[in-house]
Amino acid sequence: MKNLVLLGFMGSGKTTIGRLAAAELGLRFVDMDQWIEQRVGMSVADIFAQRGESAFRDLEAGAVGELALQPNLVIATGGGVVLRASNIATLARTGVLVHLRVNAETATLRTQGKTHRPLLQGEDAAGRIRALLAERQPLYDAIPHSVESVGHSPDEITRDVIRIYQTEG
Ligand code: S3P
Q1: What angle do CA 54, 14, 24 make, to 5 degrees?
Q2: 117 CB within 6 A, ligand 1
Q3: Residue 78 Cβ contacting ligand 1 at under 6 Å
Q4: DSSP labels for 93-111?
Q5: Given this model, what pLDDT does residue 100 score?
Q6: Is the pTM of the predicted complex or chain greater than 0.85?
Q7: Binding site membership of 95 for ligand 1 (Cβ less than 6 Å)
Q8: What is the whole-number distance in angstroms between the Cα of residue 9 and the centre of ligand 1?
Q9: What's the domain range around 53?
Q10: Residue 13 β-bridge partners
Q11: For residue 90, how far is its CA from the centre of ligand 1 (angstroms)?
C-alpha cells in the first residue's frame, strides 16, 4: 500500500486526522516531528534553539528520505516540509499527498497556548502566522489534492482524505 502523507500549515490538523485515518485504514501512524525527536533525543524546540532552523530542516529531509522508503504508513509531516521541493518529490514517489487547508485565523486559534512550536513563540504569533502562511501558500497550493479543514469535523475531514487516498493509492 502507498503511504498517505498529510501536509499543511501548523494547526491544519495533520496529527489529529492522521491518527484517525491510520486507525480507519489499518496503517501505521508516524508523526514526523516525533520521529525526529526520538531519533535525535531532543525536542523540536531544543533543536531550533541549540542547532538552528537549518539544522532542523536537514533532519526533516533525512526523515523524509527514510520514511518514504517504508510502505503502509500514514505520515503527518511538519508544516515546513514543503520548503524543500526535494521533500515533496521524495514523498510523492511512494505516497499519496493530501494538503489540509487552514486559514490564518483558525491556525492562530488552534495553536494558541501551545509552547512546542518554536516559530510561533514570543510576541505577535498571529502576525507571524499570517506572514508565514502567505509565504508558503503557493507551496501548499501546488500539492495536487487538498481538503478544507476549517468548518468541518475531524470525522468529515478524515472521510474526505480517505476517499482521495483510496482513489489515488
Ligand atoms: C514547523 C511546523 C512544526 C514543526 C516545526 C516547524 C513549520 O510542525 O515541524 O515547529 O515550519 O511549519 P507542525 O506543523 O506539526 O506544527
Answers
A1: 140
A2: yes
A3: yes
A4: HHEEEEEEE--HHHHHHHH
A5: 98
A6: yes
A7: no
A8: 8
A9: 3-168
A10: none
A11: 19
By DSSP bridging, strand 3-7 and strand 73-76 are parallel
Q: Which three cell numbers stand for residue 156?
A: 468529515
- Write out pLDDT tens, residues 74-125: 999 999 999 999 999 999 999 999 999 999 999 999 999 898 999 999 899 9
**Distance in Å, CA 97 to ligand 1 centroid:** 17
CA distances from 85 to 46, 58, 88, 116, 118 (A): 25, 13, 5, 25, 22
Tell me the per-residue pLDDT of 34-52, one tens digit each, with 9 for 90 and over: 999 999 999 999 999 999 9
Q: Which residue has the cell 498517505?
A: 4
CATH code, 81: 3.40.50.300
What ligand 1 atom has the least distance to the C-alpha of 36?
Answer: 9
Q: With a 6 A CB cut-off, is 79 part of the ligand 1 pocket? A: yes
11: CA distance to ligand 1 center in Å? 9
Q: What's the number of domains the chain is made of?
A: 1
Q: The sheet that has 73-76: what strands, in order across it?
A: 28-31, 73-76, 3-7, 95-101, 145-148
Q: Does the beta carbon of 8 lie inside 6 Å of ligand 1?
A: no
What does the alpha-carbon distance between residue 59 and residue 87 come to, in Å, rounded to a whole number? Answer: 11
